[in-house]
C-alpha cells in the first residue's frame, strides 16, 4: 500500500514545476514581444532549464505510479503490451501499426517530435497517446 502523504507531496512538487515552467515560458514570450534581445546563449540556457524541469516532472510522475501501485510499471510485461488493446482511438492505432509501432515498449522509445512527424497524427493524437501511456505508468522518451 502507498503512503498518501508521499504521493500528495509528489503531486504538489509536480504542479509547482509545471507552474514554474509556464511562468518561465510567459516571461520569455513577453521579452520577445517587447523586442528585448535574447542572445543565442541565453536561449540555449533557457531551453536546457526547461528540459531539466520537464525531466523532473516525468521522474515525479514515475514515482507516483511506483508508490501507488507498489511496483515499477516499466518491466517487460508493460513493454510487450499491444497497443491494439489500449484505449487509443482506432484511427491512431491504425496509423501506429502501419509504421510498425505495435507495443507500448516501442512507442515509449519515441519522442513527442517523433510522434508529431507521423502523417495523420497531430497534437490531439499525441495527447491521446501520452494519456494512454501514462495509464500504464510510462511516458514518451524525453
In short:
This protein is an all-alpha fold and 142 residues long. The chain is built from seven helices and no strands.
Question: What would you note in describing this structure?
Answer:
The chain is mainly α and 142 residues long. It has two domains: 4-69; 76-135, DNA polymerase, domain 1. It is 67% helix and 0% strand. It contains seven helices and no strands. The chain has helices at residues 4-33, 40-69, 76-79, 90-98, 104-107, 112-116, 123-135. Helix 1 packs antiparallel against helix 2. It is globular. 11% of the residues are buried.
Q: What sequence of helices (H) and strands (E) makes up the elements?
A: HHHHHHH
Beta-strand portion reads under 5%
Number of strands: 0
Q: What is the quaternary state of this protein?
A: single chain
- Structural class, from secondary structure content? mainly alpha
Low-confidence stretches: 71-76
Proportion of residues in helical segments: 55-70%
The termini sit apart by 29 Å
Number of domains: 2
Radius of gyration: 18 Å
The number of helices is 7
Query: Mean of the pLDDT scores?
Result: 77
Note the main sheet. none
Give the CA-based shape. Answer: globular
Amino acid at each position: 500500500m502507498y503512503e498518501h502523504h508521499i504521493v500528495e507531496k509528489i503531486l504538489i512538487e509536480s504542479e509547482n514545476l509545471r507552474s514554474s515552467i509556464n511562468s518561465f515560458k510567459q516571461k520569455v514570450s513577453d521579452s520577445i514581444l517587447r523586442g528585448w534581445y535574447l542572445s543565442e546563449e541565453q536561449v540555449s540556457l533557457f531551453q536546457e532549464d526547461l528540459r531539466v524541469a520537464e525531466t523532473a516532472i516525468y521522474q515525479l510522475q514515475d514515482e507516483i505510479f511506483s508508490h501507488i501501485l507498489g511496483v515499477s510499471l516499466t518491466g517487460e510485461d508493460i513493454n510487450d503490451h499491444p497497443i491494439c488493446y489500449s484505449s487509443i482511438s482506432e484511427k491512431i492505432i491504425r496509423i501506429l501499426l502501419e509504421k510498425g509501432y505495435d507495443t507500448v515498449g516501442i512507442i515509449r522509445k519515441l519522442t513527442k517530435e517523433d510522434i508529431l512527424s507521423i502523417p495523420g497524427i497531430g497534437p490531439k493524437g499525441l495527447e491521446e497517446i501520452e494519456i494512454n501511456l501514462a495509464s500504464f505508468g510510462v511516458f514518451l522518451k524525453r
